Amino acid sequence: MRKPIPSPDELGKLPPDGGPEFNRLVFAKSPYLLQHARNPVDWYPWGEEAFRRARDEDKPVFLSIGYSTCHWCHVMEHESFEDTGVARLMNDAFVNVKVDREERPDIDNVYMSVCQFMTGGGGWPLTVMLAPDKRPFFAGTYFPRESRFGRPGMLDLVPGIQEAWRERRDELLKSVDTITGYLRSAGDATSSELGLDTLTACYRQLAERFDSRNGGFGTAPKFPTPHDLTFLLRYRKRADDEQALHMVERTLAAMRAGGMYDHVGFGFHRYSTDAEWLVPHFEKMLYDQALLAIAYVEAYQATRNESYARTARETLTYVLRDMAAPEGGFYSAEDADSEGVEGKFYVWQHAEVMSVLGDEDGVMACRVFGIRPGGNFSNPHCPPGTNIPHHAAPLADLAKELRIDEGELQRRVEQWRRQLFEARERRVRPGRDDKILTDWNGLMIAAFAKGFQTFGEEKYLKAAEKAADFILNGL
């Protein structure tokens, strides 16, 4: 468990570099930067001080961008940034800069574009090496401590970059002009007029990538992309194309049934690591809740299917319960990890479920939620027999199998969920990023407003008004 950050009075007594126990990030406000305040890496926040030192000492800059609920950011920190050996190498070779991508999306956008241009991919943690004038010459994402599986480790990467900077700098910087030119041309690009041909082309591209078996688009990993679904709902109405609606409904049903949805506490996890929506990356982001709630509300408006309304309401319930700040506004995210293990808060052993629910209800609940004695997925960080709750089959089919009325089964599922929720609340919760971001709150306000317009529930209107008032008056 991380030690608490010093109080304001204690901070006032620290030297500008944080002293022997901290680095300069101890003076930051970002939860992500504060997570790294005790690293032995001599971190700087983004700013002129860091780049002035890089120029004065003729050193490259090691830029690391992430966010507080990012699992692989935690992994890289524990493996490398908390390791005194790696930190010693980094402090000797670089001026080291940490950026919270949610606090500085402008910086993240520039260097993520660089990473995608140089490597064909991106993600967080984002790792970029810069010349002192901020021009990038190397980019990647997560690097382990030791080299493995063809991926260079920090113990090899850092000395390699340092040696190249000293001995082969011209060669190292050859790519700088090309990258700078790419960024400039990308910034100058102008979009063509948006017309029906563009909308039709977009629809066809989504149809080609649609996974008719599992829902969603493409293969693993699968992200929810609710903006694609709301586009398809509009395309269906414009073009009277029922295939567009089919893609939406198949995807919404699959996401709701899978482990990417939190069947015990509500809300959606970040994305699915598999094509079947079973095994999620367990963090929960505010913007996903907002956009997915909107997608389910609009699907209900288009179809009057009550399952979409239920999912939207449950998602808004999660946000009100766990993500709403008392003064108004909504927090940014909840972590994937608790007690150092991704998903530990959310997964179950078969015996746990049986203990909470009893023999008769436990057997039925395990069938409904796909809980098996041997587990329903494998994870090297979780003990054998670990399960992710999901709907093993549609409730209508399960009701027939269990010889019970579907409405009665739905009532029992809610009863079991409440019992499991109460038991889960006694566990160590994942960390929460309590930043309140204007843009993400705008999405959440829109979701609550749309929920009020559709369902007429006053609590949604009050939540939207309270958040809007907080942003207008306080941010």
Biggest pleated sheet: 5 strands, mixed
Class based on secondary structure composition and strand pairing: alpha+beta
Helix content: 40-55%
Mean pLDDT: 93
Span from first to last CA?
Answer: 31 Å
Total beta-strand segments: 14
Low-confidence stretches: none
Number of helices: 20
Spatial extent as radius of gyration? 24 Å
Shape: globular
Proportion of residues in extended strands: 5-15%
* Sheet with most strands: strand arrangement: 1-3-2-4-5
Element layout with pairings:
Blueprint: H1 8-11, H2 31-35, E1 43-45, H3 48-57, E2 61-66, H4 71-81, H5 84-93, E3 95-100, H6 105-119, E4 126-130, E5 136-140, H7 154-167, H8 169-172, H9 174-188, H10 196-209, H11 226-239, H12 242-257, E6 271-272, E7 280-281, E8 284-285, H13 286-303, H14 306-323, E9 333-334, E10 337-338, E11 341-342, E12 348-349, H15 350-357, H16 359-368, E13 386-387, H17 395-402, H18 406-424, E14 432-433, H19 438-455, H20 458-474
Parallel strand pairs: 1-3, 2-3
Antiparallel strand pairs: 2-4, 4-5, 6-7, 8-9, 9-14, 10-11, 12-13
Helix pairs in contact: 5-7, 11-12, 11-13, 13-14, 13-19, 14-19, 15-16, 19-20
Task: Report on the architecture of this protein.
The protein is an alpha+beta fold and 475 residues long. It is built from 20 helices and 14 strands.
